[in-house]
Structures are given as C-alpha cells and as structure tokens.
Amino acid sequence: MIIRPENPRDIPEIQKLITAAFEGAPHSDGTEAAIVDALRAAGALTKSLVAELDGVIVGYVAFSLIEIDRQSVEWYGLGPIAVRPDQQRRGVGVQLIEAGLDQIKALSARGCVVLGDPAYYCRFGFKTDSALKFPGVPQEYFQRLDFGDDELQGVVRYHSAFYGE
C-alpha cells in the first residue's frame, strides 16, 4: 500500500470513498465529503492523504488547522478519515493516521485533536483532557495529542467548513 498526497484526479474517488465509509454510521450526518470539498475549496486542507492499494484508493485522511479560543495555535484537527468498507479493519486507517501525524509534526505542529472513539485513537497517543473543550459532544470523544509541552486550554473550533459556513 502507498500513502501519498491527493491529486486533482483523485477527487471524485475520494468523494465516493468518504460517502461509502460513513454511510449508515450512527455518528454521521452525511456531510463528510462536503466538508472535505469545502476545506479544499478554501485552501484549508493542510494534509490530504490517500491510501492506494494496487492502483485503487482505499483510504483517505485530512488534517486542517484549528483555533483554540479563536486564536491560531499551530494545532491541527484530524478528520475526516475514511476507509473503503471492504478494506476496514486491515490497518489502512492506522497507516494513514501515522503518516499524517508524522507530516504535520514536520510542519512544526504543536498538537492535534480528534473527535472519535477513544478506544481507537488512544493507540496513537490521543487522550481526553477536559482543558480542551468541543461543545456539543461528550467530553470523552474529544481528544488531544500534544507534540510538545503545551498546556493549552479553551474551546476548540475547526475550520468553518465543518459548520457549513
């Protein structure tokens, strides 16, 4: 499997993949592909990676800058991440996340947040911390990964694409 940056030819396949991966998921509102399109249109996809297996895109992950208390802090949000349903539970997501985290660290990122299953994301070092808040979701599903000694606290806001703005 190859992990590489997306290219313009990948966009239709990425849209299909994200839609298929989130179809029927209880936590999904079906807007994940539109979020990625809006991030791309705004130039806000810091990292947009695909996993390619035998020439077919089987996974996708995005990283974009976040704000804490409306301040730019060189922290990133992981997501959405999507893996083709027939390729799930085969390590595709793990490889995408690890590659993405390595790449944002190389950009001097100070940390990363994720909204997701704590049992899954803890393997990458993500931890729940009540000092960082994301309104409207149970605290245990919002996690942080510090790349240094940051003791940031406050309210996290993702790019406006996540809010349909």
UniProtKB/TrEMBL annotation:
InterPro entries: Acyl_CoA_acyltransferase (IPR016181), Bact_Acetyltransf (IPR050832), GNAT_dom (IPR000182). Pfam families: Acetyltransf_7. The keyword Metal-binding does not apply. Keywords: Acyltransferase, Transferase. The keyword Acyltransferase applies. SUPFAM superfamilies: Acyl-CoA N-acyltransferases (Nat). Its EC number is 2.3.1.-. It comes from the Bacteria. GO terms for molecular function: acyltransferase activity. CDD domains: NAT_SF (cd04301). Residues 1-146 form the N-acetyltransferase domain. This is Acetyltransferase. It comes from Pararhizobium capsulatum DSM 1112.
